[in-house]
Amino acid sequence: VQLQASGGGLVQAGGSLRLSCVTSGLTFGNYVMAWYRQTPGNQRELVASISPNRISNYGEFVKGRFTIERDDAKNTVYPQMGKLRPQDTAVYYCGAVFSRAQQYWGQGTLVTVSS
User: Fold this and answer.
1) How far is CA 44 from CA 24, 35, 37, in A?
2) In sequence order, what DSSP letters do the residues of 20-57 get, joined into one string?
3) What span, in angstroms and rounded, lies between the C-alpha atoms of 60 and 83?
4) pLDDT on residue 51
5) pLDDT class for 95, splitting at 50, 70, 90?
6) Which of 18, 40, 42, 50 has the fewest other C-beta atoms within 10 Å?
């Protein structure tokens, strides 16, 4: 199983980024796709998730700024992040979750938001 995250980079405050995560080796349509983020010294926190039937869930800090979509034909999940703030700077990780015992995570992509 592989999850390849991309789309991170440097963006100015107020700007937007679209991350993507392409998966292989799993039945994509069976998995909740999730994005978490982590900063040094802090625990990972949920950014967004989307279920196989497209029910989405967002971290409290998102406050309507992000949306998440999935393309089952391409085995890909896309969080669209807007109105970015310096405190959104973090490494963003993509995960595929079927159960607590069956979940897979990618390597992370760095998002840096400058003020």
Assistant:
1) 24, 10, 5
2) EEEEESS-GGGSEEEEEEE-TTS--EEEEEE-TT--EE
3) 15
4) 98
5) very high
6) 40
Supply 107's token pair: 């390597």
Q: What is the DSSP letter of 63?
A: T
Tokens 């994005």, residue located: 35
Per-residue pLDDT tens digits for 23-34: 999 999 999 999
CA distance linking residue 58 with residue 109, whole number of Å:
19
Q: Does residue 97 have a pLDDT over 90?
A: yes
Q: Is 78 in a helix, a strand, or coil?
A: strand
Report how far apart, in Å, the C-alpha atoms of 82 and of each of 18, 33, 114 are: 9, 19, 14
Contact between 11 and 18 under an 8 Å Cβ cutoff? The reply is no
CB neighbours of residue 16 within 10 Å: 12
Class of residue 114 by CB neighbours under 10 A (exposed 0-12, middle 13-18, buried 19+): exposed
